[in-house]
Amino acid sequence: MTNTMTTSKATHSVTGPLLSVQNVxxxxxxxxxxxxxxxxxxxxxxxxxxFVSVIGPSGCGKSTLFQILAGLLRPDEGSVTYHGDATRGxxxxxxxxxxxxxxxxxxxxxxxxxxxxxxxxxxxARKKVADLLGTFRLDGYADAYPFELSGGMRQRVALxxxxxxxxxxxxxxxxxxxxxxxxxxxxxxxxxxxxxxLGQSTILITHDVPEALMLSDRxxxxxxxxxxVRMVLEQPEPRPRTLDFMxxxxxxxxxxxxxxxxxxxxxxxxxxx
Length: 273
Prior knowledge:
The chain has 273 residues and is of the alpha/beta class. The chain has helices spanning 8-11, 62-69, 107-111, 113-117, 122-130, 151-163, 181-198, 209-215, 249-267, and strands at residues 19-29, 35-46, 51-55, 77-82, 92-95, 169-173, 201-205, 218-222, 229-234.
């Protein structure tokens, strides 16, 4: 089936980062008029077509960072710019941890929901989704309801719902965390292929070190809360990657490096070297 989806890589000529996060800090109200720091001086970049992962200890502030990237929260300090512009326009599509499929809608109508809510006619939205069902390995399941789908298929429907919006940047918040090991591995390989084929610029939050290494051009390691960037690991190996990559010396070395840094980051407060 011909793929009808395009991305910013194909439609924009960009010099410099597509998305730039510079010195972002975020606090929330604490008891007795105090402020609870969650993110401290975080910077990261995403170039067109890149896949970047963010990992860190549980509760360190990764999801708060994603809400800032998605425009759902404003930082107290610092900036988030798209093509150098601080606009809060719809430059990203955000997929949360849970698939959030509506049980009374079919797979096709769930996947089309974002388009119809954005003003597209139901007929046009269903047609656009139908053209991509094969790409997302959902042929034959357009009329299936969520309870009739496996966990992996539900996640592919949710990912289709996110990607069919054709936003330049895809934000994925632990999309495979609740799946079994085999299904998760299958979807990681598939996601690596589809993002590379489409040139989709992506930022992923994950607790899974092998997943980050399998998918990413670059991995940012965050400290314990308040989150600071403790390490930036570059991966020059070409994407998409196969399971054979997990047997390479580069993968093994990077896995040990990230696990060591994560263990140290979880054991020490931010601001301590």
